[in-house]
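Please, structure for the following, as tokens.
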Amino acid sequence: MCVIRKIPAVLIIICVGILVVACAGQTKVESDLNIKGAPDWVNEGTAILKNKKGRLFHGVGSAPPMGDTSLQTETADNRARAALARILSSYMEVVSSDYSHTESGEDAVPDQSITRQIDNITRINLTGSRIIGRWRDKKTDIIYAIAELDMKQVKETLKGVQDMNAGFKDYISTQGENIFDRMTQGGK
């Protein structure tokens, strides 16, 4: 009887030990889906990158089979744009953080005001994004889409924004590309 009571306790201790060891290990996140035959952008996913075409924001989305190809394609496109919005918003938050560290005193812009401006900039810039590719996985019938937005487009859009704080606008204009480059190299 005593042995039967000890088995669950020993089992619990072993399970807890395994969990502790598993959680203590370094988390490894794979950015490559390893889908054979897929374009590189499918396997690499959403990213910001600097290449010969310029400084680019890429959002990748996918949609499972839905029985309606046009609905499935539209869903993949919308998910790609949503991924693009998230990455653009992250970029703008880094810009805003850098800006707020450089500004102080009377000319400083309240964080809430900057946040509203970031949201507006993200929405406005998404209208300049475009779907530059789609791919269907023949094995799973999943459709993938990639949306692209060029940093030049972001800067052009900012020039036309009337209700933006002039200091913040100027900061993005002069420092935006440097911050973009830092982010593509993994530093924030």
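Residues 55 and 139 are 33 Å apart (CA to CA). The chain is about 55% helix and 15% strand.
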